[in-house]
Amino acid sequence: MSASGLITLQSVNDVATTLERLAAVLETKGVTIFARIDHAAGAERAGLPLRPTTLVLFGNPVAGTPLMQAAQTAGIDLPLKALVWLAADGTVHLSYNDPIWIAARHDAGAAGQQVAAAMSSALAVFARHATSGD
């Protein structure tokens, strides 16, 4: 994790497959996908170029609520988000904010850090699944 809390993984898949694999693992684990925002489509409607860039908002109240109970301002960073994007060199990436960083950002204390650690572990598994070939 960087100081900014941003974690980025390179995907072996194209953008569409990375998004499909992310959605599939989230749904399998009972995580709700609240929205998909296609930034490239928005840019195109505005007459501006942008490589494929899609933001997925997702979460589970059982996981997120305890973090907000520890630090209510964490709600600004929840639900969790993952950005799937095509870089200029043709590689595909998945980026997300580490929940541990979110908890630290909001001074969530020991209880919040514990919740965030579990969320971080799960999110790492979801991201690895989305970006891998298995």
What would you say this structure looks like, in words?
The chain is α+β, with helices and mostly antiparallel strands. It has one domain: TATA-Binding Protein (2-Layer Sandwich). It is built from 5 helices and 5 strands. The protein has helices at 15-28, 39-45, 61-70, 99-105, 109-131, and strands at residues 6-11, 32-38, 53-59, 80-86, 92-97. The chain has a 5-stranded antiparallel sheet with strand order 1-5-4-3-2. Helix 3 (61-70) packs antiparallel against helix 5. The radius of gyration is 15 Å and the shape is globular.
Secondary-structure element series? EHEHEHEEHH
Q: What distance lies between the first and last C-alpha atoms, to the nearest angstrom? A: 24 Å
CATH topology: TATA-Binding Protein
Tell me the overall shape. Answer: globular
CATH architecture: 2-Layer Sandwich
The CATH homologous superfamily name equals TT1751-like domain
Strand content: 15-25%
- State the domain count: 1
Instruction: Record the strand order, biggest sheet.
Output: 1-5-4-3-2
CATH top-level class: Alpha Beta
Mean of pLDDT: 96
Topology of this structure?
Layout: E1 6-11, H1 15-28, E2 32-38, H2 39-45, E3 53-59, H3 61-70, E4 80-86, E5 92-97, H4 99-105, H5 109-131
Antiparallel strand pairs: 1-5, 2-3, 3-4, 4-5
Helix pairs in contact: 1-5, 3-5, 4-5
